[in-house]
Amino acid sequence: MKPQGILIVGAVLLGLAVGYGVGKFSGAAKTPLAVSNTTGTAPHARAGFAFGKTAGSNTAAAAHTELATLESELRRISSGPSRKRWEALQTLARSISAADAPKALQIADKVLGRNEYWNFRYYLLQHWAEQDPMAVLAYGESLKNRQERTQAITQALSEWARKDPNAALAYVEKTVMGSERQQFYAAALRGVAESDPQKALELLNQIPPYQRRFVRGEVINALAESDPKAAAEISLKQFSSDRYGNDDGRLGVVLQKWMRSDPDAAVAWLASQPENVRRRQSTIRGIEQMSWDQPDAAVRLVDLIPTGQARENTLRNLLSNWAQKDLDAVQSWSTSAAILRNGSWASSLTRKDSLTPIRPKPPRVSRD
After folding, report:
1. Helix, strand, or coil here: 49?
2. Helix, strand or coil, per DSSP, at residue 290
3. What is the pLDDT of residues 109-162, one digit of tens each?
4. How many Å from the N-terminal Cα to the C-terminal Cα in the chain?
């Protein structure tokens, strides 16, 4: 890394260390702020789970939460640190039984803020649909609120299509009309792609051209779970075939999932790509997004971004996001990077005192 890159590391760490100390002094008197939701129906962006399956999908919940204690658990989580809130809501949602799901959603609607509620609802519907997609479908059809109805039915269709693709697709063909048809068909194909990627691609070519872009994106998201290399190749073709050269962000999503399942293969694949792919906005956004839940993966990819302002900005954002979650880990990484990395990093990161700021000593108060 060039000298300005080292300055970025030092500046980010120093600024965050000072902020950490100041926050310690003032945090005890403040109430945690709710985080606004800009996505409406998808989980919070920081969680990195807005597309496809979550890390705990199709696995048994660690514990079962009874309805009698659900309200107190929700209030405890919502009053805690925001950096831990989203993961806690996901874990709690996956501990609710299918029989208790409708009532749990009612309780959450009364207790949680809007952004927190939509996160909890997304994960609970996903977990419920894995157990009984037909029950979720019936629940969704009974809802009057269009946004809530759409979210429930799409979750149900994805799981139904994974188990019985022909029946799920037939449901969409026979019963869904208007603007919802494309969205529900995409949800069904996403489920097909998880169990039979080749069939999903064949079905994709059978729909009207004006619908393919959106539906293809959903197929790519699902395919990234089982065959991330194929998903990455398809996302490249989608980008190159777009007449306006639009970058819809699918490659970044694929990289996030691939780095969880096989990081060495993901790094090797991206390293083999030309510069225009490695500096694409989708690639950079994907790396920055990883800084919240898999920063160790993100730092492996930063060096693959071509040298320039984009790379320096990505490093700055990555370190800033990572340090908000774990400042000590960033400091540890900065002092060991000369050993773990080669080239310009190894020759530049030599002075521990140039990167490790002095953390202000906090008063003796509890941190929220």
Report:
1. coil
2. helix
3. 999 999 999 999 999 999 999 999 999 999 999 999 999 999 999 999 999 999
4. 37
